[in-house]
Amino acid sequence: MSHNQLTHINRIELATLLRQGLSRRAIADQIGVHHSTICRELARNEAEGNKIGYDVGKAQRWTAFRRDRANQAFRKLPTNQRLVGKIVEKLEIHLWSPEQIAGWLIENGAQVRVCAQTIYDWIYTHRPDLRKYLHCTKGKYRRTRGAKIRLEGRKKELAKRRIDQRPEHINNRKRYGHWEGDTVVGAGHSGYIATFVERKSGYLMAVKLERATAAAFAEAAKKCFGVVPKKYVKTLTLDNGTEMNDYEYIEKHTGLDVYFAYPYHSWERGTNENTNGLLRYFFPKKTSFAGVTQKDVDHAVRLINTRPRKRHDYHAPEQMFKRGWCNLG
After folding, report:
1. Mutual orientation of helices 35-44 and 24-31 as an angle, nearest 10°?
2. Among 45, 78, 111, where does a domain finish?
3. Is residue 96 part of a domain?
4. Would you state the pLDDT for residue 281?
5. Based on the structure, what is the number of domains in the chain?
6. Nearest Cα residue to 197 out of 189, 188, 205
7. Is the dihedral of CA 56, 61, 66, 67 positive or negative?
8. Does the residue 114 lie in any domain?
9. Which of 153, 165, 201 is nearest to 304 (CA)?
10. pLDDT at residue 74 in the model
11. Alpha helix ranges (H) inside 45-110
C-alpha cells in the first residue's frame, strides 16, 4: 500500500467519500493510499466551521504553502555560505550524516535550519563531489518513501485500457461475451464477493473472497471464466478498486481484454451495478460476510440467474446466456 502524497484530484475524492460517511480506512482503499496518509491529510488540513471538517480548497492552499516553505529552505542553502561551510565541515571532517547535521542545527539553535532531505537534495543537485561522504553511495539516497512503488503504480495506471478505448459495438449489447466486474463488500470489510456479469444476458458469476487482494480477485476471475466457452469470453470492464490491479494476470489466464471505467463513473458499468443491487437483496449492506459461504453465494446467484427479466421478454438470464451452449460446470 502506497504512502504517497495526495493530488488535487485525490483531495476531491477524499471530500466526496467523507460526505458519503466512509471510514478513513475505506477511503484509503478507494483512493489507493495507506490509511495513515488519509489520517495525516485530515490532521493537517482540518477546516474550522466545516461540517465534514475538511475543505479541498483550503487543503490545497496549505499544501502549496508548505511546499513553498520547504523550497525556500532548499534555495537558502547555495546562497548561505556560512551554513554550507558548516555542512561541508561536518560531512568531510566529522563524517556526520545529513540527519545528524540537521539535528545538530536544531539542537544548537541555528538561525537557518534545514532538514536532512534538503541536505541530500542539495548534495545531489549542487555538490555531487560530497556524495562520497554519504553513508550510502548507491545512487540517489533517501528517495521519498514509497517512490518506487508509486512510480510503478503510475506506469500501471497509464497502461490501463479505459472504457472509451473499448470497441463501440459493445455498447449496444448485441453480442455475447462482454462482461463487467466488481466486488461487493461485507459490513466492516468482513468479507467480499467478486462479481462478473455478462452485459447482453445479465448472467451472473460470483465468488466469495476472504480478502480483497489483487491476487484473490484475479484467481476468482480465472476460476469463473475457466468454465465459460471461449466464444463468450471477449472483454471485461472493471471498477478501479485496488483488488483489480492484477488485470494482466486475468488477461493472460482467461483471454479477456480488460478495460476500466473511470473513477466514480459507476454508470459506465450499469449492468454490474444493477446486478450487485440484486445480490444485496440476499446480502444487505449491513450484513457481515464472516459467516457467508460459497454455497450461500451460489444459491443467491442461482436465484438471480433464473429470475425472469422484462427486457428478455420474461426469459431468465440463464436461458438467454445458454442458448448457444450447454453443460456449464
Report:
1. 110
2. 78
3. yes
4. 92
5. 3
6. 205
7. positive
8. yes
9. 201
10. 53
11. 56-79, 81-92, 98-107
Look at residue 49 in the predicted model and tell me its pLDDT.
43
User: How many CB atoms neighbour CB 90 within 10 A?
Assistant: 19
Kindly report the pTM of this predicted structure. Answer: 0.55
What is the rounded CA–CA span in Å between residue 32 and residue 245? Answer: 10
Q: 77: buried, middle or exposed (CB in 10 Å: 19+, 13-18, 0-12)?
A: buried
d(CA 156, CA 177): 25
Q: Is there a single domain that holds both residue 171 and residue 261? A: yes
Instruction: Return d(Cα 123, Cα 117) in angstroms, integer.
Output: 10
pLDDT digits over 150-190, tens only? Answer: 555 566 666 789 998 999 999 999 999 999 999 999 999 99
Residues of the chain under the 50 pLDDT cut: 1-3, 48-51, 139-143, 326-329
Among 61, 78, 95, give the residue marking a domain's end.
Answer: 78
Type of residue numbered 37: T
CA distance 221 to 37: 31
**DSSP run (H or E) holding 197:** strand 192-198
When computed from its CA atoms, the radius of gyration of the chain, rounded to whole angstroms, is 26
